[in-house]
Amino acid sequence: MLSEDGVVKPRMLINGELVGASDQKTFPVYNPATREVSALVPEASADDTNAAVAAAKAAFPSWSALDPTARGACMKKLAALIRQNIPELARLEAISMGIPVSKFHYGHTCAFQFDHFAEAWPHIQGQSSVNTPGHVTMTLRQPYGVVALIIPWNAPVHFFGSKAAPALITGNTVVVKSSEKAPLAVARIAELIIEAGFPQGVFNILSGHGVPSGQILSRHMDVRALSFTGSSRTGKLIQEEAARTNLKKVILELGGKSPAIVFDDANLAKAVEQTQGSVQSNSGQVCMANTRIYVQKGVAKKFVDAFTKRFAAVRDGDPLKKETNHGPQADEVQYRNVLRYIEEGKGSGKLAVGGGGKLESKNGFFIEPTVFLDTPETAKIMKEEVFGPVVNINTFETEEEVIAKANDTEFGLYAAVYTRNINRAMRVAKALESGYVGINCTSPLTGRDLPFGGWKGSGQGREGVLYSMSNFLETKSVIIQLDDE
Ligand code: NAD
Questions:
Q1: Which keywords appear in this protein's UniProt record, sorted alphabetically (predicted)?
Q2: Mutate to test the pocket of ligand 1, among 106, 205, 234 (most ligand atoms within 8 A of CB)
Q3: 253 is catalytic
């Protein structure tokens, strides 16, 4: 990737060529740990976005007609190239959104998706039956055509792989729009896509803000399906645009306000370690982080003492250094947002640890791990996604009470319950309004072959190695009448 004076100059991938914006417009990305300019990134214009969709549309007939093993061969090559470039991808993410290189495992998860789906094509199957007398019926599963993939900044390389790989193997052509906060690693992968030998126009990558490029993709008449991971606010806007234009299929993976419930018979040391890890992971910038923890009264003091001690001991610092396990927030906007929530939290709950930013002392967008106790359930900080290293710990007495509190949210992405009582564990798991439930474990842990997705305002649709291909396949019913000879 071009780099001058340490400033990275990435390009977009449109119709098989690495290009800048057609109007030459760029935007800066700052290293959130130092506030220095890391990169000058092309801002995809309306023309660029339309050109990427047109290229994908032109490439669709031959890509979808290709032997799926040939599609898979490009994907396997890309997986290998991604693996070879993991240290560079880690560095590019660190200098754009601040994830410590020691915590960057997304190169592997991304490569895994391309490898897995490269060989998953035999599962693209319809059904057949003779249940209609005098007829044979069947269903065909076929690609949509041009698919748009809009990804967030908190784990861009991971979402890039988990969306693009199933879309491509099923015969769709794609236009990916990376996040304006973290476009660098994805731009590096754009270069690897050329090396991997994808035919021209099959795989296009745009960089830029939600408006114009994301919005244009959402309302584009030639985009037939759109998979989005990001905030609930943007998800709703995309859904509106899709409804207003061509009713493209929309898959939404949105935000969360995940509860973790700790009963007094739980393995407390494990509950502390895992719930703290959940909210610290990626500096709290994880959709499924357990940001509301409910602890049964009898063990609350012990839990809070151990949790706050552990949480306050994170090693923040330069994300490029191996010893750092806690990076800054992704940018100034995120930093200021989190600080606003912390100030609001101070007015509604009891501050137990942290409670501030470290801009003066560290010169980057670092936030102190922050714990609030006894916050009213109706407080803003209990209802909205903070997306920072901030957690609310409240107490409860009964199972009924805690289920009601845990479910009193518009989100429903992940919930956790810690107890040694299997009956209680299963009762609570069943009662929780959530797309995922961890029993004696919590996020970001997920089962390798389980579906992932939200209930309620956390999204619609499911992703996963057994589920994502379906998101990119239309179903056609065919009925054949048999003549009597
Ligand atoms: P965001 O919604 O601000 O941005 C996500 C993407 O949408 C970016 O590429 C952005 O440029 C684009 N975008 C913005 N406005 C748009 C518009 N009007 N039309 C089309 N595209 C537009 O989200 P973010 O801040 O990047 O990511 C954080 C959010 O993502 C959090 O809410 C988090 O919970 C959620 N998230 C969800 C999951 C999940 O799997 N459910 C995973 C990770 C993150």
A1: Oxidoreductase
A2: 234
A3: yes
Q: First vs last Cα of the chain: how many Å apart?
A: 67
- Ligand 1 mean position, distance from CA 235 (Å): 7
Structure tokens at 475: 């179903």
- What does residue 238 show for φ and ψ, rounded to 5 degrees? -65, -45
| Residue 1, pLDDT above cutoff 80 | no
The domains located in the chain, with CATH, are 2-254+460-476 (3.40.605.10), 259-453 (3.40.309.10)
- Which pLDDT value is given to residue 67? 98
Which of these is catalytic: 43, 93, 180, 253?
253
Residue nearest to atom 35 of ligand 1 (CA): 230
Q: Report the alpha-carbon angle 473-478-479, nearest 5.
A: 160
Q: Encode pLDDT of 425-455 as tens digits.
A: 999 999 999 999 999 999 999 999 999 999 9
CA distances from 115 to 266, 395, 434 (A): 39, 45, 30
Residue 484's pLDDT band (cuts 50, 70, 90): confident
d(CA 378, CA 398): 19
Ligand 1 binding pocket mutation candidate from 49, 154, 184 (most atoms within 8 A of CB)? 154
- Tally of helices (H runs) and strands (E runs) in the chain: 16, 22
The pTM assigned to this predicted structure is 0.97
Give the pLDDT band (50/70/90) at residue 2: low
